[in-house]
Amino acid sequence: MEDAHRITPVIQLVVDTVEIRRRAGTRRPFVVASCLPDLEAGEFSIVDGRLDIDLVIEAVTEGVRATGTATGHWTGPCRRCLEPIVAELEVEVHEIFERNPTEGETWPIEDERIDLVPVLREAALLGLPLVPLCREDCPGPEPERFPTSVGVDVDLSEDAPPPDPRWAALDEFRFDE
Ligand SMILES: [Zn+2]
Q1: Strand, coil or helix: what is 105?
Q2: How confident is the model over 12-28, as pLDDT tens digits?
């Protein structure tokens, strides 16, 4: 179903920004299928490292902005029954690149180019589910022996939140004087 020749090599995820930055307001679509190696975290991974990238790259005051989505599939074990799950992954990309990037906030422009690999890697890994279930009512590996509390509404919230202090102040206000 997919044409292997159209998979973009990692190297092409480095984008030259000279043209984009030359004219403010230039919006360049960047739509590719990529294969990034080692897209995994613990027992979870992106299937084949494959991400379909649909971005717009444009010049902004600070430098260059990339916005759009990356989609693919993740796989990993069900948290209850440990059966492998394969499900769709879609992550939003909304990143700024600049010459003097702020650690943890923006990405570098180096030699007039931006490298989308670390951006996509981070977005994809952050998009992995924390506690996936193969299905919402997965009964676990041995439901006979270890029934789960599926279907029972467990109230995880604390006791009722304290009343808003502003209303408390009104309570003290006596109208019957
Ligand atoms: Zn399961």
Answers
A1: coil
A2: 799 999 988 887 778 89
